[in-house]
Amino acid sequence: MRLRNEVVLPPVGLTSQQLTPWIFWHIWLARNNVCFNNKYTTPEETATRALAAAREWNLSQTQECFVKKKQSTPVAVAPSGVLIRTDAAWNESLLLAGLGWTITTENRSCKFALYAEFVGSPLVAESLALRAALHKCKDMELRRICCESDSSLLIKALQTNVMSMEIYGIVADINELILAFDSVAFRWISREKNREADMLAKNCLADEQVLYALNVT
């Protein structure tokens, strides 16, 4: 039995850089459990799960800390499909991110934005934006989609099935989500073409930073 104030040491071979993303991720999961499922997870349980996930990841990696996941090649979206463009804005000091995306069909274009807490890097923020957009597409019962982002690292991870540790969990979620669609494609676009999603993300982050400042004062 572990005492409440007992210090839990990280597994041998794990650095703080390897462990931090998993801590953020499991804090986020614990927060979601409270908000959406009314289930409380103690800090000790959250830390233990983060350590276990980090250990499992570390043992499965090559020296370059990359993993290849087998999955079917995404099918190119048909002309009658739906275009999704995603982007994110990140505040390093607050670990806050604004997520923005647009969903464009033949008949209309919809805009969406939300914020995320405990975000460890710009790449994590970009990945969260794409995952949120896919959740929305699933809720809207869209079937054929093409996802575009100006994050070359994220698109490369999705196109080549090679992903870095910090986005492994989110990319795994994305790979599971795309099974709900008839066809999915991922494409890189320039920032110039992604202005609308970029503005949605930046405005959302700016609003959240104002609220944060008000709460602090």
TrEMBL record:
Residues 86-204 form the RNase H type-1 domain. It comes from the Eukaryota. InterPro entries: RNase_H-like_EbsB-rel (IPR052929), RNaseH-like_sf (IPR012337), RNaseH_domain (IPR002156), RNaseH_sf (IPR036397). Transmembrane segments: none annotated. One of its GO terms (molecular function) is nucleic acid binding. It holds the Pfam family RVT_3. This is RNase H type-1 domain-containing protein. It comes from Brassica cretica (Mustard). The lineage of its organism: Eukaryota, Viridiplantae, Streptophyta, Embryophyta, Tracheophyta.
